[in-house]
Design a protein that fits this description.
Length: about 120
């Protein structure tokens, strides 16, 4: 019996639910990176990076390429970069909406604190 698509999607998004994995995918969205470059950018222990890359490999989001003693990684699909861009757009929209709400609340508070407000009465 196959799993429902919503469960598979939930597992996929769980894979994305770690800041290091997101940052790795962002870096790989720009270009392929050697493991040493990822380590330098992320500032984490090699064992931690190895663990996070293993999760991304199992999810088929990244693929390693060995060149002698050097290993580099790339995204398996440009759709991964597109997904990250869509997420950025959604977050930008949400944050913009929250900022507008905050402005409205601050303006409302400022007008209710004015000289004709019932509290000063």
């Amino acid at each position: 019996m196959s799993r429902p698509l919503y469960q598979v999607k939930a597992e996929f998004f769980k894979t994305l639910g770690h800041p290091v994995r997101i940052r790795v995918l962002e870096l790989l969205s720009e270009r392929d990176h050697h493991v040493s470059e990822l380590l330098a950018d992320l500032g984490i222990e090699p064992a931690n990076l190895s663990q996070q890359l293993a999760v991304l490999r199992r999810a088929k989001l990244v693929v390693p390429r060995k060149d002698g003693t050097t290993v580099s990684y790339s995204l398996t699909s440009p759709s991964v970069a597109e997904l990250l861009a869509v997420a950025r757009g959604i977050l930008t929209s949400v944050i913009t909406g929250q900022m507008e709400l905050l402005d409205d609340l601050q303006n409302s508070a400022a007008s209710s604190d004015g000289p004709n407000s019932p509290e000063t009465g």
